[in-house]
C-alpha cells in the first residue's frame, strides 16, 4: 500500500516539474511556427487574393492544418503544468485572464484553421470553380480576420497576464516578463502592420521554455 502511494506521489511530482511545462512549450512553439510557416509560404498574405494557391499549395496547407491541433494540445499542457506549478501563488484575477485568454486564443486559432480547411476540402471537388469566387473571398476574409485580428489580440492579452504572473512569482527573469509586455503591446496596437505578428506568441513561449529547461538542467547538475 505504501509503495503504491509513493509511486503515485512520485508520478505527480514528475508531472509538476518545470521540465514538463518547458517540453510542452517547446512542442507548442515548434509545431505552431512550422504550421504558420507552411501557411504563409503557401497562401498569399493579401486577404483579397484570388485563391490560385488552391491548385498549387493545397498539400502544404493541409499539412499545416494537421499540425495545428497538436500545437493546441501542447499549449494546453503548457498552461496546465504552469498553473499547477504556481499553485497558491497564482492570483485569481490574473489566473482568470491568463486561462481565459489562452482558451480564446486557441478557439480563434482553431476557428481560422477550420475555415481554411473548409476551403481546401471544397476545392477538392471543383478547384477552378472556387478560385476568385464570392464564396472563396468570404471564407478567406473570415479566416484572415479570425487569425490576424481576434487570435492575435488574445495572444497579446495572454502575454500580458503571463508576464504579470511572472513578475509576481518570479518563475522567469524580469527581463523576459518586460519583453512580454513590449511584444504584447506591439500585438495589441500594431499587429496589422507586422506581417509575421502571429509568431510572436510562440516565439516568446519558446524563450520561456528554453529558460525553464536551462534552469532545470542547472538545478539537476548542482549536487545537494
In short:
The chain has 224 residues and is an all-alpha fold. It contains eight helices and no strands.
Description:
This protein has 224 residues and is an all-alpha fold. The longest helix has 36 residues, at 134-169. The chain has helices at 2-15, 18-42, 58-86, 92-123, 127-130, 134-169, 174-190, 200-221. Helix content is 80%, strand content 0%. Helix 3 runs antiparallel to helix 4 and helix 6 (134-169) runs antiparallel to helix 7 (174-190). Residues 4-16 have low confidence and may be disordered. The chain has 8 helices and no strands. It is elongated and about 60 Å long. The protein has one domain. It starts with a helix and ends with a helix.
| Form type | elongated
Total individual domains? 1
The counted number of beta strands is 0
Head-to-tail CA distance between termini: 30 Å
**Cα Rg:** 20 Å
**Hey, roughly how much beta strand do the residues contain?**
under 5%
What does the largest sheet look like?
none
> Overall pLDDT, averaged?
83
Low-confidence stretches: 4-16
Order of helices and strands: HHHHHHHH
| Helix count, DSSP H or I runs of 4 or more residues | 8
| Derived structural class | mainly alpha
Binned, the helix content reads over 70%
Amino acid at each position: 500500500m505504501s509503495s503504491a502511494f509513493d509511486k503515485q506521489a512520485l508520478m505527480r511530482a514528475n508531472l509538476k516539474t518545470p521540465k514538463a511545462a518547458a517540453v510542452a512549450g517547446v512542442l507548442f512553439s515548434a509545431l505552431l511556427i512550422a504550421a504558420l510557416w507552411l501557411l504563409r509560404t503557401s497562401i498569399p498574405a493579401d486577404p483579397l487574393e484570388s485563391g490560385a494557391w488552391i491548385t498549387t499549395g493545397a498539400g502544404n496547407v493541409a499539412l499545416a492544418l494537421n499540425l495545428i491541433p497538436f500545437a493546441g494540445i501542447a499549449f494546453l499542457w503548457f498552461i496546465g503544468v504552469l498553473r499547477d506549478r504556481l499553485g497558491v501563488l497564482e492570483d485569481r484575477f490574473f489566473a482568470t485572464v491568463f486561462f481565459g485568454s489562452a482558451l480564446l486564443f486557441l478557439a480563434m486559432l482553431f476557428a481560422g484553421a477550420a475555415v481554411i480547411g473548409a476551403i481546401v476540402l471544397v476545392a477538392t471537388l471543383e478547384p477552378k470553380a472556387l478560385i476568385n469566387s464570392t464564396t472563396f473571398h468570404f471564407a478567406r476574409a473570415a479566416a484572415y480576420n479570425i487569425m490576424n485580428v481576434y487570435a492575435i489580440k488574445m495572444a497579446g492579452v495572454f502575454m500580458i497576464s503571463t508576464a504579470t504572473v511572472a513578475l509576481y512569482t518570479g518563475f522567469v527573469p524580469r527581463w523576459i516578463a518586460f519583453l512580454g509586455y513590449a511584444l504584447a503591446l506591439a500585438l495589441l496596437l500594431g499587429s496589422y502592420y507586422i506581417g509575421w505578428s502571429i509568431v510572436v506568441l510562440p516565439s516568446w513561449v519558446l524563450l520561456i521554455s528554453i529558460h525553464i529547461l536551462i534552469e532545470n538542467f542547472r538545478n539537476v547538475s548542482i549536487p545537494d
